[in-house]
Amino acid sequence: MSIPAEQYAQIFKSNNAPIEYKKVPVPKPGPDEVLVNVKYTGVCHTDLHAWKGDWPLAIKPNLIGGHEGAGVVVAVGELVEDVKVGDHAGIKWLNGSCGHCEFCMASDEPLCEKALLSGYTVDGTFQQYAIGKAAHVARIPKGLPLDAVAPILCAGVTVYKALKESQAHAGQTVAIVGAGGGLGSLAVQYAKAMGFRVIAVDSGSEKQDMCLNTLGAEEFVDFAKDDVVAKVKSVTGGLGAHAVILLAVSEKPFQQAAEYCRSRGSVVCVGLPANARISAEVFSLVLRMVNIKGSYVGNRLDTQEAIDFFARGLIKAPFKVGKLSELTQVFKLMEENKIAGRYVLDTSK
Ligand code: NAD
Ligand code: ZN
């Protein structure tokens, strides 16, 4: 396979500096790495947080962001045995982990303190050729569309894992907060595929229509118009949702969720708004045995399971396709909460 010497990439020189779309050298894989010709990359709100410097974790200087890259393996390092040139593979948030800490040994690799994060501490997928550790690249069965599968690599895995962490059972009701966004639209689909009933919380008629008529939520609560706590309670017979999955990029829902979570239910925090805190009234939390927890991407098995749901045709969330060169415009739309579903970028343009 012929690999060019140069390629296009989107470079974050530093937080909030104009993003530079320019030619850079194609990287070479190390002994335990693979080089993936990224065909499509999703744009996750995490990429926007990285560029803005929202979190108490520094980005790599001159970072190439992105961590939902689906493409074709074009080169493998000499120690790589199970990934071959020509395979379809995905570069996801967890680019690599140490493999021998107590978390890695327990298959909890997202918790590895030495984890390499694609598009954050190492270069990611806003480029045509990206590097991943062979042990961690997602195995994508041939025949799956690389544009539609790209968002599964972060958004899909993350929401699937969060729904598992909620410990809700089939037939129970899950409130998805931020349901109209990238993670949210996939969360509604995974929740349905897992047998849950869905209350979608977001805002605006486009997202309402998508959640109710395309994704299959049973109720829509508009956070800009409705009293969210009262409405979720009223559509659940006064008891609240069995689980609340918080995907929103704003602090307010993190302050409200415990109030409309059913007794013995779980509030699962996934969204990462800047400088946010979560709070709940202790008295009610204790007497109602509400569980508040965090959930962070998923491990390699969660990734393969999430891809398998997609491969079986159970996950169909809307996405728009743009060009790699349009990243700055996509970030602007995302900042304004104007994207219903996910934006996926074609790296050939
Ligand atoms: P997105 O911008 O596509 O979607 C966010 C949605 O939240 C939008 O539809 C917006 O309208 C909605 N929203 C805003 N305020 C709200 C409110 N008060 N109530 C309900 N909805 C509200 O973002 P995304 O790509 O889906 O990412 C969501 C968050 O998840 C980001 O903070 C991202 O960094 C985080 N994330 C976490 C993990 C993890 O492992 N925990 C993984 C991926 C992304
Ligand atoms: Zn992400």
From TrEMBL:
SMART domains hit by this protein: PKS_ER (SM00829)
GO cellular component: cytoplasm
Residue ranges annotated for the Enoyl reductase (ER) domain, each copy included: 14-345
CDD domains for the chain: CAD3 (cd08297)
Annotated Pfam families: ADH_N, ADH_zinc_N
Family affiliation: Belongs to the zinc-containing alcohol dehydrogenase family.
UniProt name for this protein: alcohol dehydrogenase
Species, as recorded: Tuber magnatum (white Piedmont truffle)
